[in-house]
Amino acid sequence: MKTNVQTPMEVFTQPQRFLVPLFQRPYVWNEERQWEPLWRDVERLAERVLTSGNTTTSPHFLGAVVLQQLPNVTGELQGRIIVDGQQRLTTLQLLMDAIHGECMDQGFNGPARRLELLIQNQDAYQNKPEDQFKVWPTTRDKQAFYEVMAPKSKIDYTTLKHSSARLVLAHRYFAERTREWLMEAGIESAAQRAEALDLAVRTLLQIVVIDLQIDENAQEIFETLNARGTPLTPVDLIKNLVFQRLLDEDVDVEKIYDTSWRHFETEFWEKEISSGRLKRPMAVVFFHHWLMSVIADEIPANEVFSAFKRYLVNNSSISIQDIVQRIYAASQLYADFTVRAASSTGAIDRIALFVYRLETMQTDAPKPLLLALLDPDREQPIPKGMVVNIIDDVESWLVRRMLYRAGTKSYSRLFADLVNIVRTSPVESLHERIRETLQRQRGDATFWPDDKDIRSSLSVLPLYKRMSVSRNRMILEAIEDYLRGVGSHDKKFTEESVRRGVLSIEHLMPQAWERNWPEPADGDFNARFQRIHSLGNLTLVTRQLNTSVSNGSWESKSQALNRYGVLLLNSTLSEYQCDGWSDEAILKRTDALTDIVLQIWSVPPGHSSERSTAAVITNSNVSLLDLLKDHVLHEGQLLKPTMSSYEQVNAIVIAGGKLLCQDSVFDTPSGAAVFVRGGRATNGWLFWAVDSADGVTLAELRHDLLRRRFPDEYTDAHDDNDEAQLQGALIVDMQQRFWQGFRQYVADNGLPFTPGTPRGHKLNIPLGMSDARLYAVMTTFTFQNIDNGPELRVEFYIPDNHALYDRLFDQRDAIEAAYQSQLTWHYVAGTKSTRICDHVKRDVTDETQWSRYYEWLTEHIVRLRDAIVPRIP
């Protein structure tokens, strides 16, 4: 290995070709991160040459490249493989060629000829067209590279076939920057500036060049150099390793690449997807799953490449070419069931439906098992019927655990064990062994909930609040398909299957029920909150109902359901109601739909999880009476609202776990809270807090009790949800009080504007124009996400008129002079709205300072209005 510091002139002067291996990444550098910083460096060097000459200008270091000598016949053009640094060398060629083209176009022949020696081999060394280039890129980039590097005349980039390729965009960027810089001081100075630019690029940039001998291990050095922070994916590293090995096997590498690997460089495989808690390219996720399917062991997400190297060592009897073919076959399977699962309509077989439901549940832990079951390289293929039976059991295990709200942290280990069973068991006993393994699970992390578990959970679980919309939709879709009688173990689903992932979920009794629906017969508002979000109150509609209909009476809503809810889920609603849709109807329908769920995702006959159903944890398990019995509360305990707007109100805990509030008795905290807030739906467990120094809420007391009752099963998920609800309610309450005070302040001081109606964190100041609005803002989050902390803000908001914004921006100096301060001019490419703002960091939660904040807002509202509005035509 030899290491030298060289300039571009020293690197590129000799007749030679630097070859990018076909298996390396395509060109990925971009303007923001690489082209613009490089141009700024070159521009700075050229400016220094102009002012002080070459002798006093320090060179600029660009980084390192690793090259390896290729054997060549005497008389042939010398060649080197670019082991590392192909992005850097390719960009240098694009930069020098762009400068060369602009110099030629302006007639600056001296700089142009000197640069030509660094970008093109002389005719005497060219045996084929690509021999003219000093650098020859990877297969994917060759045509775009040729389009910009081969022309001898000025390029019209808009007519190029590959005009959107990054190589072309880079060349165009450098050409435009060169043209601007050369003409910056006028045509009379352009020739001198061309000389300075040529000198800067050829002699004042420096690269560390590491030259490897022919017999040195380039792959090992490549991995070492890229081990610290370089954004190479595991697939990039695997590709380099595989094709280095293929070169050693003396096979047609380019043909193998074209037929069995090039597809990994398409949009499908390069698109980033969510996998667990990570976002990774689809190809990386596939290799992770495929490796687990063949190794039958857990593989951490950051060890995919290491696992692949171990796989090669442990399977040294298999040729690299055969391994590539196995990878290709598995990738085709993976892509096929992924694409079919993503389709919302049409026929779908059991495997694709399974994958659709995995995606909906946001778990890909079973995919290695699926690849192992479908492995085309098995000596004895697994019959399709057996694969479907195994999938049915696995899906039942997954869905039941989801409905029971069980954790997912041990899924990877369990499915690695199941893959091992697939790899080591005779086909005849495979389904039986997998089913027995699932049934044997007893721990919280892996047990298979039985019918009692699911029935107990769904009877009290506010499903809509505890699961995502997509998961709720998936359950309802499956019930609809069951009612339609479509789908079975060995048949494809027909076109009669419900559309997947597109229908809207509707609450039969609306979430905002207070205006048009009667109160619960038992007076338990908290129980109604749970029931409204339970399975029996949810359905699917083909079109989302508008708010007035959705929240309207049952009479009007049932008519809309007949129109937009033409599903069997809705045709049977009359079976559960007596006089309209009621809490009792919800309970009946929950029981009926639970029966269907247990049929769809069935368990083996006699299966028991051997768990107590008392361990099902939901907030509705605990009442005020429980808190009294546990001595968490005591009779006579004083409760205060958490919202400052109601600080004059209190409630008293009385016998039987009831609340006395304003001479009325309430069975639940929510009943009392709704009464205090004038009928508005309110979570009483968050509204009421103990009147003490720490001010702990009833919700917190309830969670503490649940933790003590069920230390092994209880999680903090409900705590987080309640905390978020509480914080949101407190912020809304604070905003309402802030704007009430602000409006009063404006009225008391006779200020020259009339505040509009506040909406959350902002208040409109009417201007009498449709194209723009003036806002006063108080917010707990920051503007532009630059610094943490709340702020006050005045902003001139233009919803959709870029021409108006541009006219104002042209008058920026005058506007800021009139405003007497600098403003933030906020424009984001691709968005309709624009803003002109001033903001200041203030603790908006400190109510003692609100009068000062009102002064700041009113002063700056007037200044901003008077600085801008007169300049609008």
In short, what is this structure?
The chain has five domains: 2-222, no CATH class; 233-341, no CATH class; 455-607, no CATH class; 622-715, no CATH class; 736-871, Yope Regulator, Chain: A, CATH 3.30.1460.
Count of separate DSSP helical elements: 35
Count of extended strands: 21
Structural class of the helices, strands and pairings?
alpha+beta
What count of domains describes the coordinates? 5
Please state the CA-atom Rg, rounded to the nearest Å: 35 Å
* Cα shape: flat
Give the N-terminus to C-terminus distance in angstroms. 70 Å
Percent of residues in beta strands? 5-15%
Question: What is the typical, i.e. mean, pLDDT?
Answer: 85
Largest sheet: 6 strands, mixed
* Strand order within the widest beta sheet: 1-6-3-4-2-5
Helix content: 40-55%
Detail the poorly predicted runs: 489-495, 612-620, 715-721, 781-788
Protein model, in words:
This protein has 873 residues and is of the alpha+beta class. The protein folds into five domains: 2-222, no CATH class; 233-341, no CATH class; 455-607, no CATH class; 622-715, no CATH class; 736-871, Yope Regulator, Chain: A, CATH 3.30.1460. Helices cover 48% and strands 12% of the residues. A six-stranded mixed sheet has the order 1-6-3-4-2-5. A six-stranded antiparallel sheet has the order 16-17-18-19-21-20, with helices on one face. α12 (282-295) packs across α16. The longest helix is centred in the C-terminal third of the chain and has 32 residues, at 717-748. The radius of gyration is 35 Å and the shape is flat.
